[in-house]
Write a structure and sequence with these properties.
Number of strands of chain B: 10
Distance between the termini of chain A: 37 Å
Number of helices of chain B: 0
Structural class of chain A: mainly beta
Number of helices of chain A: 0
Largest sheet of chain B: 6 strands, mixed
Largest sheet of chain A: 7 strands, mixed
Largest interface: A-B, 25 and 22 residues
Strand content of chain A: over 45%
Oligomer: heterodimer
Distance between the termini of chain B: 36 Å
Strand content of chain B: over 45%
Radius of gyration of chain B: 14 Å
Radius of gyration of chain A: 13 Å
Shape of chain B: globular
Number of strands of chain A: 11
Order of helices and strands of chain A: EEEEEEEEEEE
Chain lengths: 114, 113
């Protein structure tokens, strides 16, 4: 299994600012995934981050708004840029260990934009 | 887009079996069915997965129909701690971009004392 740590666990931010969310995994993984969960909603995949290459974004998500870094096999960041209240959500990091055929999720970062 | 359909909510009496249905009529031959649950304010937790055979582990059983167009997650003896949102997910395999999970709306299960 993989243990995922996300920082911060929650934050309240002013509109127009940016927040960078960190995701640390206790083992090396090939793929890391970022999800958004809006209030009362299900999870939506934002992008897939592979070490050494640019992230692949899902429809409706763009790099300028959600830049992602993946500097090594155990770490990734997601930045929520130029925030508005509509960005208030829980952002979750996930890793897919293909050897275990299972996805592991962090506890999420609860973001409130005021 | 989500490829599964689930009832929005269900109740189950404590100690009884909880049977959660899921429709995935457009599933492809190499796509797996996964079940996760999310307890309030926590990240999703893996429960079980399967391709075409029925599966059982310490948490639950997964029954997949022969045509693979639907499945049922069975929690054999539901407890209050099983109250959560249960997600049925079809796993899309994309070589090179990883194995993405596309979550549906899920079923909110309430276990009643």
């Amino acid at each position: 299994s993989a243990v995922i740590s996300q920082k911060p666990s929650r934050d309240i931010c002013q509109r127009g600012t940016s927040l960078t969310i960190q995701c640390q995994v206790d083992s090396q993984v090939t793929m890391m995934f970022w999800y958004r969960q809006q209030p009362g909603q299900s999870l939506t995949l934002i992008a897939t981050a592979n070490q050494g290459s640019e992230a692949t974004y899902e429809s409706g998500f763009v790099i300028d708004k959600f830049p992602i870094s993946r500097p090594n096999l155990t770490f990734s960041t997601l930045t929520v840029s130029n925030m508005s209240p509509e960005d208030s959500s829980i952002y979750l990091c996930s890793v897919d260990d293909t050897m275990n055929t299972e996805a592991f999720f962090g506890q999420g970062t609860r973001l409130t934009v005021v | 887009d989500a490829k599964t359909t689930q009832p929005p909510s269900m109740d189950c009496a404590e100690g009884r079996a909880a049977n959660l249905p899921c429709n995935h009529s457009t599933i492809s031959g190499n796509e797996y069915v996964y079940w996760y649950r999310q307890i309030h304010s926590q990240g999703p937790q893996y429960i079980i997965h399967g391709l075409k055979n029925n599966e059982t582990n310490e948490m639950a059983s997964l029954i997949i129909t022969e045509d693979r167009k639907s499945s049922t997650l069975i929690l054999p003896h539901a407890t209050l701690r099983d109250t959560a949102v249960y997600y049925c997910i079809v796993r899309v395999v994309n070589f090179g971009t990883g194995n993405q999970f596309y979550f549906g709306t899920g079923t909110s299960l309430t276990v009643i004392p």
